[in-house]
Amino acid sequence: MKTKNVLLTLWLAAPILVVTLLCVLIFVQFSGRGEDVKTRAVGAGANDTGGANALGEWLAGHDPDEVQRIKRDLREGRLVDPYRWPGGIELRVHAAEGSGPLTVFLYPPAGRLDELVGMVMNRVDPTLWNIVLLPEDFSQGQVVVVAPAGGKIEDSERGVVVRDPNGEELTPIDIGLVPSDPERERAEPIVVEITIE
User: Fold this and answer.
1) Using one digit for the tens of pLDDT, what is the confidence trace for 59-103?
2) Which one of 121, 157, 171, 197 has the largest count of C-beta atoms within 10 Å of its C-beta?
3) Within the chain, which residue ranges are assigned CATH 2.60.40?
4) What 8-state DSSP symbol labels residue 122?
5) Kind and range of the H or E element at 60?
6) Are 92 and 104 in contact (CB under 8 A)?
7) Distance, C-alpha 123 to centroid of its chain
8) If DSSP codes are grouped into helix, strand and coil, which group holds residue 106?
9) What strand order describes the sheet that includes 143-148?
10) Among the CATH numbers 3.90.1570, 2.60.40, 1.20.1250, 1.10.530, which is that of 82-195?
C-alpha cells in the first residue's frame, strides 16, 4: 500500500518536477553569458503596438508608415521628445525691440483657470527673452503659450484661452520632436527658438 502511495505521489509531482528542471536548465544555460540577450521588439506589442493601430492612424488622416518610423526613431534614440528631456527646454523668444515683459503660460489642453501656471520670462537683450522649462512642468500634458504684456486670460467653454492685448487668441507653441545630438549632455536643455511679432 505504501509503495502505491509513493508511486502515485511521484506521478502527480512529475509535471511540476519537469517544469522546475527545465527552468533550472534555462537559467544555467543563460547565466554564463557575459551580457544580456536583447532582441528587437516584434509582434503585437513591440513597444509601439507594432503597427496594430495602422488602420486607426489611417482613418485619423495620418500616414501609418510615418507614425511607425517616428516611434522607431524615438525608441532607437535618433529622435528626442523635448518634453521628456531631463535637462528641459530652453525657450528663446525673439520679439520686437522695446516690447514689454513676456509671460509663458502652461496649462492642460482642456484646462481650467486654476490649473494655469504663468512664468515671467527673463530678458537677455532688447529683443531676446528666455526661460528654461523642466519635464515636471509638463506633467499634465501642458501646452505652452507666450503672452506679451497686457494679454488677457479667459475661461471659455473649451478651456483656458490666452489673448494678446488686441484680443486675438494666442495659439499654443508646438514643440516637436528634435534630432538626437550625441554632443548634448542630459542636463543641458534643448534650445527652441521662437519669433513673435
Assistant:
1) 778 788 887 888 888 888 888 888 888 888 998 999 888 777 888
2) 121
3) 82-195
4) E
5) none
6) no
7) 29
8) strand
9) 117-120, 102-107, 143-148
10) 2.60.40
Look at residue 50 in the predicted model and tell me its pLDDT: 53
CA distances from 97 to 19, 51, 148, 181, 193 (A): 75, 49, 13, 32, 17
User: How far is Cα of residue 55 from the mean position of the Cα atoms in its chain?
Assistant: 23
And the C-alpha cell for 191?
534650445
pTM over 0.85: no
What count of other Cβ atoms lies within 10 Å of the Cβ of residue 115?
14
Q: If residue 131 lies in a helix (H) or strand (E), which one and from where to where?
A: strand 128-133
CA-based nearest residue to 180, from 83, 90, 81:
81
Distance CA 178, CA 82 (A): 7
- Give the CA angle between residues 103, 170, 161 to the nearest 5°: 90
User: What Å distances lie between residue 155 and 64, 92, 125, CA to CA?
Assistant: 36, 27, 33
Q: What is the DSSP letter of 41?
A: -
- Split at pLDDT 50, 70, 90, the class of 48 is low
Q: What residue type is 167 in one-letter code?
A: G
Contacts of 58 (CB under 8 A, 6+ apart): 64
The backbone torsions φ and ψ at residue 140, rounded to the nearest 5 degrees and listed phi first, read -105, 20
